Structure prediction request, 346 residues.
Amino acid sequence: MGLMEKDGDVPDGARPQQADVAARAGVSLATVDRVLNRRKGVKERTRRRVLEAARELGFLAAGEEAELEGARPPNIVVLLPAGTNPYLRLLGGRLRALAERRGSNDPVLRCFFIESFDARALAAALRRNAGWADGIAFFAIEHPVVREAAAELAAAGTRLVTIVSDLGSLPGIPHVGMDNRAAGRTAGLLIGRLAQRREGAVALVAGSRHYRAHSEREAGFLSIREELFPQLRLVGLREGHDDAGENYRHTLALLGQAPDLAGIYNVGGSSGGITRALKERGREDVVLIGHGLTADTRRAVLEGTMDAIFDQDPDMLLSRAIDCIAAPGGAPKPLKLDIYFAENLP
Prediction:
């Protein structure tokens, strides 16, 4: 009688199955599946028992065994706002590309688009994905229900990092993004210098003030206008929810309200709606500063409808966010603000 038969295992010549590994290790089939697929939620001693059983049964090839013996790469979820914002769609595309070419020891990536500007939807998505994810990177909405969910998950051990827009002073949650107040001041400086008017109106279009990034950019813009360009009066801030259609309608209204409009700072995304309105009204003289180097903003700068693009490199943004989860350390430094004009487009 062979050794495997004597031990009550599968007969000689039969290929062992996951069910055989589960029986030998004294665990459920679901646990074996989690161990073999390096999923979250298995105690180390249980994982060891499953691997030992798989080894004794000859279930694993040598290369597979060596791979499973190593530390499990983290499961990482990235939550982005849904909608028509081209920069956010670009981020989603870059994440999909990263997921498709990952190596066996690279983090396992998933990306989900959550209803934009909906704090409760974001809080629910954070809790829903914490069961699978070791870490979550998310575009934060500054709202009590989001802060509560984030604090709850961080206390339970889920590694969190905010990207682009943060949660403020919530401890233990690093942020990857630019200095948004400095970006707003820089936009105000450019509009003030490029407008070439002693007097006139300037306007801001934002996605939503619930995004801390947008409110900080607004604050920076307003501060430098008051300091250096008080002759340029502000005609209000419109919330376009990063929607090209809404931004188009807001821009038409601004042009009707202020015929002497000298400049617009698009604090959020979807600048295509603004450039469409400016072109239709023949107002390419209005200085336009916006965020996100994408196909539509590149075209607008080359056509002269847009004057400058503020960008934070999407690959660097994602790389820093993933590193914050996979290899947590100190607080990351702000990302470099890239400013593109027609003459220096990459």
